[in-house]
Design a protein that fits this description.
Largest interface: A-B, 40 and 36 residues
Strand content of chain B: under 5%
Oligomer: heterodimer
Radius of gyration of chain A: 20 Å
Number of strands of chain B: 0
Shape of chain A: globular
Chain lengths: 235, 208
């Protein structure tokens, strides 16, 4: 893997190994906290912290970890970072801590983090592992925010774009318009549709992810058929 | 010792709503979205989903029985130690669950090979199943009494089981039909959506 570039590893994590849509892992937080763009962003940030910490430390310790007990050791390393982000959220971002609830401690058993520790960080040096962590985190964040935005737009008729920011010394998720120079963006972007409340309830989550996966599958199938026709197959 | 209180062992209020809540209105798979990896992966046929459901229900109930005393008598600030160690709860619970699952695996491999053949392969999957860790964390978060927490865990296990079995039945039927697009986990998601709609609309009319 030495010849692969840092950027290439990141892009692979986003597209080819997208944790949600390609590997179908980590569905619990994807569906549970994607009720709005803001929640999805908060979860994505917490996940990124844990993913990077776990990948770096597993990769650093990969020569010391005995193969027989590697999974418990991975879980302990992951759990350290989860406890850290859990306490930090409780201290600095209490509204986000309440909104994410039980899903922050549950990052411990997130299959994506354990899967990357086992499949990648345990076999690769630190720098590629960081790249892999960044790529997977961006891929997860993109999937979460896509589902979150779709559900928020269809469920409430508007989209509230937010960003992690510090206003008057208080950290929090503030609308983009709070940033100087971006004040032309309205706080809630309105869409001319009738809100369907079912989209922000649990059935809406299943409907969104099922429809998205169906679309990706149809697109993938069409791409494969075109490829086959180009190679000279006849239907 | 501080003023923080350990909840009573036996529940004083009516615990039937807790049970129905765990089974239907706050179903782990359909409403709380816990344990979805095993839902997608193991509902391909009804034998697999039956084995997994039994194993999950058993481990959930037992881990509720084990973790409640550990939390209130060792970690909380009303415990014998008198220190607030609650920040250790995630790490402590996951170790307890993993150790318990390993122990059960050894025991049934030794004493009941047939049971091991049908359940054994699912047990390692359970220590990293978020439904099991979820139920023990929710028991603490909701402040349930010991009796109520065990009942909640058992109800959650049953709720998990019926959704797993129902989806496995749907997916087994779908394989026979000419709907290739819906036969994989996409079909499972649509089945889950319909089940979630049914549960939500039924309990919107029938109040507990």
């Amino acid at each position: 893997m030495a010849n692969k570039s840092f950027v290439g590893e990141i892009i692979r994590g986003i597209i080819k190994d997208n944790p949600v849509f390609v590997l179908v892992l980590g569905l619990c937080p994807t569906l549970a906290v994607s009720t709005s763009f803001a929640n999805a962003l908060g979860m994505a940030l917490a996940f990124t912290f844990v993913m990077l910490g776990s990948n770096i430390f597993v990769s650093l310790l990969r020569k010391q970890i005995p193969a027989d007990v590697r999974i418990p050791i991975f879980i302990l390393i992951i759990c350290t970072f989860v406890t850290m982000i859990d306490m930090m959220l409780e201290a600095f971002l209490p509204p986000m801590y309440d909104a994410l609830g039980i899903f922050v401690p549950l990052i411990v058993v997130n299959c994506i983090v354990i899967g990357r520790a086992e499949a990648y960080a345990n076999r690769n040096p630190v720098l590629p592992s960081i790249a892999d962590g960044i790529g997977i985190s961006i891929g997860f964040a993109a999937a979460l925010m896509l589902i979150g935005s779709i559900r928020e737009i269809l469920g409430t008729g508007g989209l509230k774009l937010v960003m992690l920011n510090v206003v008057d010394g208080v950290p929090g998720f503030y609308p983009l318009s709070a940033i100087p120079g971006l004040s032309f963006i309205p706080e809630v972007i309105k869409f001319p549709i009738e809100p369907a409340v079912v989209m922000i309830t649990p059935p809406g989550a299943f409907l969104t992810i099922a429809t998205l996966m169906l679309l990706f599958k149809i697109m993938g199938d069409r791409k494969r058929v075109k490829q086959l026709i180009k190679e000279g197959y006849e239907l | 010792m501080t003023d923080a209180l350990i909840p009573a062992l036996m529940p004083t209020e009516n615990i039937f709503p807790i049970f129905v809540e765990a089974m239907f209105t706050k179903n782990f798979l359909l409403v709380m979205f816990l344990g979805l990896c095993s839902y997608v992966g193991l509902t391909t046929n009804s034998d697999t989903s039956k084995g997994m459901s039994m194993a999950v229900t058993f481990v959930m109930t037992m881990s509720a029985i084990l973790t409640w005393p550990i939390y209130y008598y060792l970690l909380s600030d009303a415990s014998f130690l008198g220190n607030d160690l609650t920040f250790l709860k995630t790490i402590c619970f996951i170790l307890v669950i993993a150790a318990f699952v390993q122990l059960v695996e050894f025991i049934i491999r030794k004493f009941s090979p047939p049971l091991y053949r049908s359940l054994g392969i699912y047990l390692p999957l359970i220590s990293t199943n978020c439904a099991v860790l979820g139920v023990v964390l929710l028991n603490i978060q909701e402040g349930y009494t010991y009796g109520a927490s065990i009942l909640y865990a058992f109800g959650a296990g049953l709720g998990y089981s019926w959704v797993m079995l129902a989806t496995a039945a749907v997916r087994e039927k779908l394989i026979m039909r000419d709907v290739q697009l819906f036969s994989g986990f996409i079909g499972a998601f649509f089945a889950a959506m319909m089940a979630a709609l049914i549960v939500a609309s039924y309990f919107a009319v029938v109040k507990l």
